[in-house]
Amino acid sequence: MIAVIDYGVGNLFSLSSSLAYLGLDNMVTSRAEDLQAADRLILPGVGAFGDAAAKLRESGLFEVVKQQAAAGKPLLGICLGMQLLFEKSTEYGEHEGLGLIPGTVEALRPDLADQSLKVPHIGWNSLQIIKDDPLFRYIQPGDYVYYVHSFYAKNCAANTLAVSDYSIPVTGVVRAASVYGTQFHPEKSGEVGLNLLKAFAEL
Amino acid sequence: MITKRIVPCLDIRDGRVVKGLNFQGVQDVADPVELARFYNRAGADELVFYDITASVEGRGLFVDILRRVAAEVFIPLTVGGGIRTLADFDRVLKCGADKVSVNSGAITNPDLIAEAAQKYGNQCVVLSMDVKRVDGSFHLFAKGGREDTGIDALEWAEFGVKSGAGELVVNSIDTDGVKGGFDLEMLDAVAVRVDVPIIASGGAGNMEHFVELFRHPAVDAGLAASIFHHKQVLIPDLKRYLRENGIEMRL
Fold first, then answer.
1. A150 vs A121, B18, B24, CA distance in Å?
2. A123 touches chain B (CB under 8 A)
């Protein structure tokens, strides 16, 4: 069973639907017991980092997620959920994340080599696979995935599995042991995204 | 590289697609779920649904359709039509919408943009604007393009983005329905004022029009309805053609 962690941030309908579409048993939940009982966890999220980190703490799940990840349970952070895996973010002040992956989350705008590019980075971008991984079992290098974000993970090269080119390499997929994160939305990336979720469920 | 996006738009009234005619490969062209499925298979990069229903029953049908589409079509879904309050945002986001498009609702209550952006994030708020030339300047129109607000459209675009809109849909009333090409002059005028993605709407008549559109680097997506619904342009052909012309496309 996959537990989709509901901590009051964002809309989980599509994510839960995509798992159901794949025939994967899943539960949208905010209960610690469910997270402990699940085989796998997905940490979603949209909005601002500080707000989401605060909500995750208020829900009492911050430590539970950390413990479960430390115990080796596969965890997938998506979009802001991926950003929360890092040590800290500078989005509207400095905020502490889960610290499961070394690195920081910072604004995309000042780092872009091509300043004529738009922020948010919204749309389909191709994935360059840097390190092969079982997560990519059903997808190909160059496959397109759907991004929507204004902040990105950096100083995390050692843990980066894939990037997308946006005049700089934007961190796309990260991993530390059984903790994974995707900056893009697999549940909105068509067939490619479904194949990635399928691979996650088989890890 | 990021791709340009091809976005079919479905106007829905009382649970049916308006103007859905003669479509091969689709059993019931007026069934929004069937049509969404078809466009997804054809490679549409995102779908826009406009609720043009007036009745309460129609509104219920609309969210039901949205839920059914979101349960099996896993690409971004934008929803607009009748969005006036945060409760309206909530209603469609709960049913699987990723982005919510505001138009007249933001003209009546400009604070709606900032309130929604704060609550749901900038990426969720799309400002849709109907624009027409009046006495040599671009005016913002309300009520489905029927009423001149007298507001300068370029200033409105700038205000919208400052308030937190993460994307703009620019619909040119001047070129809409004419099928003579997108309103490149208008799009360029808006693009120099904002730095968020711009979705062009109004005027698409053939594949060449999309090539012209995407040669303007500031435009990120092209939206159209009838040429796709009426099979005048097929999305797989269009995307291949654009890629042959050097435009980055997801195939």
1. 6, 36, 40
2. yes
Average pLDDT over residues A74-95: 95
Q: How far apart are CA A94 and CA B28, in angstroms?
A: 53
Phi then psi for residue A147, to 5 deg, are -105, 150
**Predicted pLDDT of residue B24:** 47
**ipTM of the shown complex:** 0.93
**Chains A, B: CB contacts under 8 A, how many?**
93
Domains of chain B: 5-244 (3.20.20.70)
pLDDT, tens only, A66-83: 999 999 999 999 999 999
Q: How far apart are the first and last CA of chain A?
A: 13
Q: What is the pTM of this model?
A: 0.94
Q: In this structure, what CATH number is given to the domain that contains residue A152? A: 3.40.50.880
Structural domain boundaries, residue A113 = 2-201
Q: Which two tokens stand for residue B166?
A: 């993460």
Q: Which of the residues B88, B130, B176, B183 is marked catalytic? A: B130
Give the type of residue at A37. A
Average pLDDT of adjacent 10-residue blocks, chain B of 251 residues: 96 81 54 94 97 80 94 96 93 92 96 92 94 97 91 98 97 92 97 96 96 95 93 96 97 91
Q: How far apart are CA B87 and CA B93, in angstroms?
A: 10
β-pair type (A75-78, A86-89): unpaired
CA atoms within 13 A on the CB side of B119: 16
What amino acid occupies position B15? G
In single-letter form, the type of residue at position A26 comes to N
Q: What is the mean pLDDT of residues A137-152?
A: 96
Q: Is A156 a catalytic residue?
A: no
User: A20: nearest CA in chain B?
Assistant: B71
Separation of alpha carbons A177 and B127, rounded Å: 41
Give the pairing of strands A2-5 and A40-43: parallel
How many domains, chain A? 1
B2 at A interface, C-beta within 8 A: yes
Residues of B in contact with A122 (CB under 8 A): 123, 166-167, 197, 220
